[in-house]
Amino acid sequence: MDILADVGGRPGLDCKGFCSYCYFKGVKGVEPFGCKNCMPFKKGCDYCSRAIIEGYPGFKPLDMVVFEVAQRAFGAMPDKVTISGGGDLSCYPDLLDLVTILSQGTVPVSLGYTSGKGFVRGDEAEDLIGAGVREVSFTVFSTRPELRKKYMGDRHPEAALSNLEIFCQKCDVYCAAVLIPGVNDGLELEKTCSDLVEMGAKGLILMRFANAREQGIILRNGPILSGVVPHTVEEFRRIVTDASGKYDLRITGTPLWDPETGAPFALAHHREEIKKLPKIRRSATVITSSTAQPLLASIFKELGDTVNVVPLKKDIGCLITLEDFRGLNLNEIKDTVLIPGRALAFDPEIRKVLSLDGRDRMVVRGPDRLTVDGEMSISMSLEEVIDLELEAFTDLIETINALGI
User: Fold this and answer.
1) What residues pair up with 206 in beta bridges, in sequence order?
2) Do both 147 and 219 map to the same domain?
3) What range defines the domain where residue 101 resides?
4) Which of 51, 210, 267, 292 is 20 to 30 A removed from 25 (C-alpha atoms)?
5) Number of domains in the chain
6) What is the C-alpha to C-alpha distance for residues 387 and 378, in angstroms, rounded to an integer?
7) Gyration radius (Cα) of the chain, Å
8) Are 319 and 341 in contact, with CB atoms under 8 Å apart?
9) How many CB atoms lie within 10 A of CB 402?
């Protein structure tokens, strides 16, 4: 049993200031998008009104976090506790006390996200490891201190990198870097990868910088960095592939891709596994992101010709909003439509947009997740990824067989 300890925290406020590339920079009031959690008669719920913008009031008090964890554990000893929140964990004032209480000297603790911007001495990691930290997700951006200082607003970059090295020596550390063209890619990325190999990091997740609505900037705060054109999905995939082949480091990317497992949509690269899926007996349209469409289409092609896969102008499926549905050619859309389970739009409004041609279409949400991106697959085996996809696609096909035409 793994338990989540949510410490709260606000982006930009509880992390020593916004990084220059932060997705949440400049967000003010955002109207509820609508989502799968909304009641049928009311657009807006806690998730699509508050959680989507990390709308915490601030860090939670230590005793509140401990109480919530105790409730989730139901008196049982968890196998692992992951500490996470909306701010930077290195800025949480009671982090060491929290780790000590949650671990009790026996339970391994994972730090779900930190950039180290709250570390000032350079050796804070020693105490945290002694208290029970065994795994760390660390946003490195670059191992060059001056780049961290300029783009992350890190006031003590040397201290952060010193702590990263200590964590790498004694914990499983998975680093992350948002790639900004001309800043921390190219030769700078090569330096970062080489340094992480020398430190002993387990992996590096490369995250494509997003700067426009179709790339996922949906909080009315784009562009994040004026004048910066992000890597295309194809360029980004090549960067991930090249880096993975050069360094003794598990390197994955989001939105694409994991060279070791073929995720996301590993089934597209392991077609013999597709034969394990149920037969499709009815017809439907699957609407998805522009990144997923060619991979999804190749999988469904192996299963027959009754399902067509239509892309929206959005790179990531769970960031699809109502505005994206308005651009569809309804002539391509069948009477039963499946959309990403976590799409950020209100179901009645989606049905209205998809019925503008006079056809009353059935709109159904598919599974929350059909596959995994690099943030998840970096710690997964090929077998685990395939098993997850087979289960999710089985659910999707059973929905098509039950509700399709």
Assistant:
1) 177, 253
2) yes
3) 2-254
4) 292
5) 2
6) 15
7) 22
8) no
9) 11
